[in-house]
Design a protein that fits this description.
The structure is a homopentamer of 304-residue chains.
Chain A: H1 5-12, H2 19-30, E1 40-44, H3 47-51, H4 53-57, H5 66-75, E2 80-83, H6 85-89, E3 101-104, E4 106-107, E5 118-119, H7 123-128, E6 133-138, H8 145-161, E7 165-170, H9 185-198, E8 202-206, H10 218-221, H11 229-239, E9 246-250, H12 257-270, E10 274-276, H13 279-282, H14 286-300
Parallel strand pairs in A: 1-2, 1-10, 2-3, 3-6, 6-7, 7-8, 8-9, 9-10
Antiparallel strand pairs in A: 4-5
Helix pairs in contact in A: 9-11, 11-12, 12-14
């Protein structure tokens, strides 16, 4: 397929990036069943790090095998597959070139005693594994936030210099931030904006609620009805340079299929670029997961 | 326009700097409607980092778009435009060469649990984006002040070695410094002096009050009437190597236009080199902002 | 002996590794009396660091001499010998080439006031001593876990780049982890999985009990009988990419020979790749140790 | 003037230093009105950093201008001028070659919340500004003393490798050291000795009192009359490798002229190499300061 | 003298070291009056750093002069002279080649507020000063022990790569270690063993008492009579790879000559390689010190 106008427009927003980074964004945007639409669907499998293998894979034991996830992402026609070093290495040769991959470069775990992550891979790893992108999580609000940002900044600069795109998972957490504020609209938009300021090419945030957590921000949100999820998505997109950056939303914990589909519709209607969806697919039996992904793809294509 | 005597005099004070740094100071001093006067007007847009996107841009929603600020600075005939990485990148190509840019290299945010900042860009970024300068905030008084200074020092040396000028935002904060002292005259002059000692080419401080915060400094300020703002500006200029360094003052939070104009008159009459003015312009409708900037420019040109 | 199918299959799982790393894994897998079987028996002698020389070697004083351990490992036909810098250096020339060696690159000690280790060797040391692998201990759960992971990651990348394999000892400890949880099944499988995600070529964990320590993990383990040790081994193997990584188990403190043999049978029956066995051999008289190792080898060969 | 025997003897003590460092010590020892006598008089202007600009320069406002200090040091015929980066840069070209300069490479300030300093310049800066030496402050006794020493050590090694001499200001402070002990004789001699051990070419300490602060040191000082200041100077000189290192003493806070002259006589009679004198000169009107410096020079030349 | 068998045997134990390191060990082992015997007598003068100049040198004032110690070590026919940077530099040229020197690369002081040391010299310093070895102190048990080990490890690797031998002073201290345990036999043997594991070429420990401090170690020491000092020395030697590493013992605080001689006999009879003896010599008048050293040499030669 030749490059679509939708993709050309998105790429035009990355005006300060070198052709290498743009080529990798192009790879992701033109790949899979949503290729050319300007929408994305990404499979992330870092839950083994975050929650342990059994909580992640026992609901669907074939998923213990790293090859399972490559197969799932390829067969479902997704845009990209994201995972930590070991998971990618275990299939990088078998599936070389079959789907764009994103090497997740930092990770936390269930026992962490601070809101932070360890760097678990390098840009060299991403190059030698043929990845289109690298990914990082930052925790706006955390005591270690400044250090996380500096770490991500250095690796992002190195990645961009060799033509690799950067995806930032921006998850407010820790420090003075109340638990209730982690999903607040103002907090989520702020988290997305900071990821954009740091230089993320693709921004990943959670779908926000209509709660406003910061006292000083209440006035800025007053006089607008935030009860519809699509409106909130629209605001997050606005916070990402008025739509000049790709923003995808996470599916969160495994939940009912209907809720998953409604999220996709709201993301689409609010102008978001797509979903990163992990547990909701790989914790279901493969056939069920493929059917769900097919339905989501159709929603992003404009269907119901 | 050929280089004016006012600019030649200013550049002569940077006697230890290489031609590259002087050329970039020259670019800023000769650009825009104040070009050649020795006065400066800079648009800074780092409030998205500091206060979040909604508090910064909701009052004037077109300002969510990074292109808006480039347009505003260019159309108003300002001397330079300063912003963090993502904001500059999103327009660096479209507006290449149309206005000198300053890459802000560190940033804080509303959730910070310590008085510090994260480095969010590099000198290489400044070079590849064609910036005339890089900018840093330091917090004199903060527990992390020594570390901030060492970070800035290293980056400033690197920047100067490739001909890029350094702007230091010197904002007293944290540690043993009482809140009331942050705007005190003695504290502000000290903060400006330290920025000069570290090697700032352009020093940015807040307009100080007539409060004297340090007990040991009271004697040095005794016997002089500090009630006029222009006298206080004059003292800050004196603290910056008796006028051998460019000093600009910040406009602070959005306020009435009259107060803004009075500040400009006082800065001018005290011998300051100009203003960095952000929220007071981009949070107003564009026409209103352009009119305000036009008036400030006329004040710096010697009008009322 | 030409490469066996068992070894070829194992090596095929390291699909993203370079020929140098594979050649060293091949050296270990094809060496000694278990060479070619896909099973391993490794002698580790780092107890002098961990517990001091007298607690380690007084039960069998000839073991104070570093040459003793080289002799023991070679004469017993083991797969590899692992030790810290000084221990390897003291025999590296005399026994050069006679057995694959693994340089343990970090170490703790009995007086440690935090759950961490010091780096005590380098990849250059491993190269100049002709080692096939390097080894690290990580403490999942420890407050310093992120820092340990980053240290290991860097050295692992450097080692792999020069063709040296990495063995990770993953021992849950410290932080929020209760003492009782250190040997729990869920915790051990999680620790093994993280070692795999970080990029370990060989994973070493302790044999887990049937305790489940994490409340959130209980559901994932419900409905299965974990009372048999071989079932638990099987789960750990599953957690290591469904068997795509070599997993060996430690013998723990010195204990009765029968318990040691039963452990070996369970490891074998659960699909584990072998044992790392230290104190249970070198703290016994040499003849007794050789007889015990011979019996373990026979168990891994399929005997009783 | 050809090199005097006094200077040749001093240089002979720096037997492990390269010709570049010796040439710079030679420059300082042969410069100004004390040139060739083996005595030194140095003007330091780092008080703007330490106490702020107004407390430093308001008593004599022309001193706000960095050129003032170059002029003062040159006109008084001093041996060298020492200041932080910004102060030197602001006159480095105008006065190039007219007086040896020492770039002060670290600095504290009045708001510091720990007994430490920030590095505020580099050896490259010293080279490009044509400095003969670099200077550092260390705080023996401070909690951060080890870190300060390591920082100074690295920069001192770098400086020496390019032929630049190192001056160490050794000021006991912080940690377990009682305020009363900061000027104690045993503490001052210890501080001077540590500077010598670290490799200082010129050691700067404060004139000590006859107090002995360390209980364990009392015996070593017993049986000697320490009431005369010249005796105490002699002991400090002894503590600096029995006179094999140049030792200069600071004038301290501004005080009466007679006290200043008596200090100079005691330093001379005790075998010290001279004074570093800042506030006592630049806070006086220029004529008064020049007269005072003239008198001190005559004292070091052997007069009264 | 041609290399003796005693020295050849010792060198053969350093089988993984390069010829450069062996040549420097050879220099030390073949130098002075004990040259060729396999025994060593080293003069260390780092007490100025550790205790201050007056406590170190006031008992014998000529010792304030760095040349004094070179003379003493050379005239007494010692094996080597060890001191920090400044002390060595002050005589390195005058005495070049006359005695092997060891540059002490880290140092503590009486005011230290943590059990740690500062690095005060570099391997480059050792090379340019013509040193045969570098020395480090580590504090097993200290909270900062891991950091100290990593620092020493890096410098040791760098030193060995350029043919310089490493001496490690292993002094248990700090953390959970009770004061009473610092000289305990189990603790001292453990400290010596860790120095060997880290890669020390020469290990320096204190003569241990017969106290056993670690509860877990008591069993390993049971059933043996540790009342004789020579038996304890023997155990420490055993803990250093069964005699494959050179072990020397410190003389400790100044004490009666008879105690010093008895220590030497016990070290010799227990198989230790000699003494490092500082305050017991340089705090005595030179003639007395020379007589004492002569007697110690005769003891190590087999006399009484």
């Amino acid at each position: 397929m030749s490059t679509t106008n939708a993709v050309k427009t998105i790429l035009s927003h990355y005006e300060a990036d070198n052709p290498g980074v743009k080529a990798n964004l192009h790879r992701i945007l033109m790949h899979g069943r949503l290729g050319g639409t300007g929408k994305l669907l990404i499979l992330p499998v870092d839950q083994g790090f975050e929650h342990g293998p059994a909580r992640s894979f026992a609901p669907n034991p074939p998923a213990y095998d790293p090859h399972y996830h490559y197969h799932l992402a390829i067969d479902a026609g997704l845009s990209a597959y994201a995972a930590p070093l070991g998971m990618l290495e275990a299939g990088a040769d078998t599936f070389a070139g079959q789907i764009p991959t994103i090497l997740k470069l930092n990770s936390a775990n269930s026992w962490a005693t601070s809101a932070n992550q360890a760097v678990t891979g390098s840009v060299s790893d991403a190059l030698r594994l043929g990845c289109a992108g690298v990914g990082f999580t930052i925790y706006p609000g955390a005591d270690d936030f400044f250090a996380m940002v500096e770490q991500v900044r250095e690796l992002r600069e190195e990645a961009a210099s060799v033509g690799i795109a950067t995806v930032i998972w921006s998850y407010p957490r820790g420090g003075k931030l109340p638990k209730a504020g982690e999903l607040a609209l103002d907090v989520g938009a702020y988290a997305a904006h900071m990821a954009a300021l740091i230089g993320a090419h693709i921004i990943k945030v959670k779908l926000p609620t209509d709660h406003i957590a910061q006292e000083e921000a209440k006035q800025a949100y007053a006089g607008h009805d935030w009860s519809r999820q699509s409106e909130r998505v629209k605001h997050v997109v606005q916070a990402c340079f008025a739509g000049r950056r790709i923003v995808v939303f996470s599916g969160g914990a495994a939940k009912g299929a209907d809720a998953v589909f409604q999220d996709a519709r709201d993301i689409r209607d609010g102008g978001g670029n797509g979903s990163i969806i992990g547990r909701n697919t790989f914790q279901r039996p493969r056939d069920e997961a493929l059917a769900m992904l097919e339905r989501i793809i159709r929603i992003y294509q404009g269907g119901e």
